[in-house]
Amino acid sequence: MSDSAKPSESRRGFLKTTAGALAGAGALAQTAKGVAAGEAIKVGLVGCGGRGTGAAAQAIKADDFSELTAVADVDPERIDRSLEILDKRHPGKVKVEAERRYLGLDAFQKVIDSDVDVVLLATPPGFRPQHLRACIEAGKHVFCEKPVAVDAPGIRSVLKTVKLAQQKQLSLVAGFCWRYHDAIRGIFEKVHDGAIGDLVSYYATYYTSPVKPMPPATDRPEGMSDTEWQIRNWYNFGWLSGDSLIEQAVHSVDKVAWAMRDSPPESCVAVGGRQIPAHGGNIFDHFEVNYLYPGGVRAFVGCRQQAGCHNENSDYILGTRGRAIIGRRLAPHIIGERHWAYEGPKVDMYQQEHDELFRSIRRGEPLNDGERMTTSTLLAIMGRMAAYTGQEITWQQALESEESLVPEHIDWDAAHEVPGLAQPGITRFV
Amino acid sequence: MRWGRTRILVLLATCAASVGAQQDADERALVESIRERIISTAPAEPGAAYDEAIAGSEISFRMLPIKGGEFEMGSPEAEPERKSDEGPRHRVRLDPFWMGMHEVSWDEYRIFMLRNSRRASDGDELVDAVSSPTPPYVEMSFGMGIKGFPAISMTQHAASKYAQWLSAKTGRYYRLPTEAEWEYACRAGSSAAYSFGTDAAELANYAWYADNAQETYHEIAKKEPNAWGLHDMHGNVWEWTLDQYAPMYETAGEVRVNPLVKAVELFPRVVRGGSWADDAPRLRCGAREASDEFWKMQDPQLPQSIWYHTDAQWVGFRLVRPVETPSVDEMYDAWNSALGLE
Question: Under an 8 A CB cutoff, do A346 and B297 touch?
């Protein structure tokens, strides 16, 4: 990395502009206490879909005495299905009494209030800032799925919450799972170690098939409210998912951030649009973002969710003395003056996240992914802002954006209109 | 009887919760109907090779006759690189069958795999009623090539459903080979480490493996076949068999006839033959590999997909067709060995 991009400086700048001075936070902090061996660690799950159920399975596997004691969702059938699967896989560790199966949009608070130690947040990301704040305020450790917000007000809220978690000595692990993957950790360690010289550019691909495609309006059951219809098809609505770049390709964006040592870019430009009928949803199905980092370093992130096209999920990191490649099938490797290929074991990164989280809770040594998870999420949101508006967007602009996608009050039974698809050149930056 | 695909999908979801051993009534009725179609279809001449065309496409594949007979299954204890799960060596007798001359290619398998993505009907109720994969999220060849290349990364369930779909479509009974059938066909009369002998130096004439594959799979049937005309039994991709993996063979009695370790758990099941990613010893006729949950490690959802092993980019399969058409129960088991096991 060039001298002008000294990560530590940029990082400090970022913190200063976001959450105010942190001086003394460490001194004020309570001393973290571990959990005595043999004592149960009670887990609450918020969001019982496929990912939430997966996270719960990993959480109750991560520690000999971790157990699931409370769950929340908006759909009772999903709760039942989730618990049935979990009980089958981890008999004896699912102890969710009927009265601790909470239903509705306020159910997350009931899980938090139900005497759990750890909360797993796996709802659509639009709810995340609110849920995360409630967890940390109540003194709970958290596993927080990615992305952590869908707009800048959400990001600013999460940043405050992250500081609070630090002060309260709580563990906060984010579902940016590649950060817990041995091979990917290995290659980024090499890159940071100078194995490819100074970074020149980063090209990341996230070209896949559609995720949870929007059903046609004719599929909507009679009498179903806008809010329910949107939540049931959450991926297709910006206020719930943040759009495909933020909800899915954020994994690639996160690796870009990692390569740049989690320091922010100066600005970005992007193209994006939608080819597949939106059926009333309002997200794009393709983006290409070009980030400009200090010293002229560039990062390109392309994502597409269309069937029948070239699919790929790879990373090509170019440096002055070599290339680092995270390919589709080969172990991550480096080509150049210093050849290297990952040769360690294949570890389940989803399990690894929880193993490290629960170990930190057990030992009273809090982990906090808060800053980097927020940086990576804002990095993706910034790309969306640039694509939607067609304008160049600076990091500062993105951070200070007043655009709020998530309604202040969400009513399950209410009408709720969403804006149409963004139109680059016409849609204004807010 | 009418077969709505939605109905079948709902059924699959429901029976996922029930006990595995129990047969599902509607699936059984579907298997019965397919069997009736098989019985009413003119049989091929036993002992002759034939080409099977997949209706509605330009694609066909070749089936080679494999005579019934006896062989020694497993590796002798003195064989270099032998592992303990390759024994004890024992006598096996098998009925005649046909076996795919090559591994199932993407050209064949994608017609089935992409049925739901294309919302395509086969224009045939019975065929449409066979459950088929959810649309894949990632491109399943991982950039290694499609036309002429072997299909990979499917679960054993997906491979079995392909066999069922193909059976409904053609009126000929296809299934995965048993482990015994696979080893018998791989050896093609040889009792050595490889079908061509013991010298791994010759392997490159017959197989794609770590030393010559350059970290990717290769087009099917580009290497020399074994003595019975079968290509890529050694290497290219591991091939699914029907059996549950057991760490040693059951050898009670003098000779085991058409043996099969019936699967009662989802993992582990047996794959055979080694792949582009393996070293020579893993390609030996007797070498075995057990499937693992890790093969879908990248799927963060629970339940995980029943169709894809995204992390197993070295697993494929080929099909067999027994000469004798078996009972409904046997067909049901061969096509539904994952049903109800989550």
Answer: yes
